[in-house]
Amino acid sequence: MKNLPTTLTRIIRLPALAIASLTVLAACGGGGGSDRPPVQTNPDPVQPSPPPAPEPTLATTFTDLVAATSGNAPGWGAWTAPAGRVPVGGVACTGTITYHQHSLVSIYKEGTRLGLPDNLGRSGCTYELHTHDVMGMVHMEADVAKKFTLAQLFALWGQPLGANGTAGLAGPVRFYLVENEKLTRYTGDPAALELVPHREIVIVSGAAPAVLPKYRWPAGL
Question: For residue 155, what are the domain limits?
Answer without folding.
Answer: 57-216
